[in-house]
Amino acid sequence: MGWLAMALIALAGWLIWTGRLQRMTVKDGMALGAALVGAVMAAKGKPVAALPMLVGSALYFLARSRKGKAWRKAATLPATDEQLARARALLGLPPEADARAVKAAHRRLIASVHPDRGGTEALAAEINAARDLLLRHLKGGDDPDRA
Predict the structure, then answer these.
(1) What global pTM score does this model have?
(2) According to a count of CB atoms within 10 Å of the terminal CB, is the N or C end of the chain lower?
């Protein structure tokens, strides 16, 4: 069980080193912490106390990964008017904006909030998602009245 503790500690170090830890939610951090504590307890010869923590963390991350797949599937559904309005507001665009305006607004915004320039990855991802949603809508890929 010592190898498991070392692997989880290495995983936590890698998450910190690459900056992925910043995108983790509080629940993710708690589950990772529980897994680390469980692995250390198992390595110290207390597998009965460690097993619930390890199993609980594994189940949490399994459920979370399945939820992520459902979210990706939902992203291909037609956009609602509310989602389009929110994406336009984020990019600062009027409702009649064309693809060129969407791309220009995206370039302008992403230059100021890009993670390489001190911005957050979460905000950059949200801006990219808004651009993708509006471009997909403009191409007619998600118009519910079409077809």
Answers:
(1) 0.46
(2) C
